[in-house]
Amino acid sequence: MRFFYSITSRILKKKNLEDRFQNGNQNQALGSFLSFRTAAIFLVAFLAMYALFRFFQIDWDSVIDALRSLHIGNYIIALISYYLSFLFRGMRWKIIAHNAFEADESKVNSLGRCHSVISGFTNFRSTLLVLCGWFVNSLIWLRLGDAYRAYRLGIISKLGFPWALGTLVAERVLDMAIVFVAILFSLIMFSSGLQTEAIQILVISATLITFLLFSFILLLMYGGNWVMLLMPTRAQPYYLKFKMGVLKSFKNIVVITGLGLLAWILEFTRMFFVIESLSIEIPIHLIILASMSNAVLSTFPTPGGIGFVEPGLTGILLISVASSDAASVALLDRSITYLSILIFGGLAFWIHHICFSKELGSRDPALPS
Question: Domain residues for 52?
Answer without folding.
Answer: 2-361
